[in-house]
């Protein structure tokens, strides 16, 4: 078991399998001219498997593949096929664009829940945020996952003046769709045009949603970073990830590995 000096047990590993991405979200990596790691510096499927095996042996029970955009790796199918041999729950965080291409591999690897980023339901705004014109493909892939009984968590980064007006529309999606919508506070990264005025706090979002929807609190897991709510009469659920306004460091159970195999204990 991996226990740190604050007595936190670390049983959740996030592996970035590439730093590359096919989108250029303005809040994440807006620059078109980024130099990404050369292929020979990325962990190979076998290195990812061997590292994961070691961590699983040390008590890790959940591994999430992330990036960059994990699905841009041509060997993504091989990576999840190998990981599926381990006694560990596998999750994926993706922008959703290439999900249809890997659906069979995902099903074969027994991955039953996927986090998909989507910040707007307006195709024009989607183009402004991601700098790519792919709203339709992402939306269709969300519906495809639902059809295939894969549980979809939609990650929405709420930015004041950009998409905060759509919060109620995202909550309304849960009326008929069995999805879980997570509202994430806008975090500052290097060169992501962050400023305090653009932050839409989860507290404000919760107040706004409560005016319109009958919410009830759901139970959160011990190390969950989100606070979950149900809505009377809705099939899906929502939650809030207060990365900025409410630190969850004391219950953090995560470890991270970068695409070139370096260990990071904390995103910050
Ligand atoms: N490309 C994948 C995706 O978009 O889901 C996985 C990597 S992405 C960095 C992981 C998550 O971080 C996404 O849900 C994304 O919306 C979120 N994210 C990126 N930049 C952020 C920021 N500045 N503030 C809050 N969340 C952010
Ligand atoms: Fe790419 Fe995900 Fe960052 Fe958007 S949030 S630029 S999809 S890594």
Please tally the helical runs, counting DSSP H or I stretches of 4 or more residues.
Answer: 7
Bound small-molecule species: S-adenosylmethionine, iron/sulfur cluster
| Fraction in helix | 25-40%
| Mean pLDDT across all amino acids | 95
Strand content: 15-25%
Please give the largest β-sheet: 11 strands, mixed
Sketch the topology as an H/E string, one letter per element. Answer: EHEHEHEHHEHEHEEEEE
Query: If you compute it from the alpha carbons, what radius of gyration comes out, rounded to the nearest whole angstrom?
Result: 18 Å
Number of strands: 11
Which class of secondary structure composition applies to the elements? alpha/beta
Poorly predicted spans: none
Q: Overall 3D geometry?
A: globular
Strand order within the widest beta sheet: 7-8-9-6-5-4-3-2-1-10-11
In angstroms, what separates the terminal alpha carbons? 24 Å
Characterise this structure:
It is a single chain. A hairpin with a 5-residue loop joins strand 8 and strand 9. The protein is globular and about 50 Å long. It is built from 7 helices and 11 strands. Helix 2 runs parallel beside helix 3. The protein has an 11-stranded mixed sheet. The protein starts with 11 loop residues before the first strand and ends with a strand. By secondary structure, it is α/β, with parallel strands linked by helices. The longest helix is centred in the N-terminal third of the chain and has 13 residues, at 45-57. Bound molecules: S-adenosylmethionine and iron/sulfur cluster (SF4). S-adenosylmethionine is lined by residues 21, 27-28, 66-67, 69, 93-95, 117, 155, 157, 184, 186-187, 189, 192. Residues 21, 27-28, 66-67, 69, 93-95, 117, 155, 157, 184, 186-187, 189, 192 line the site of S-adenosylmethionine.
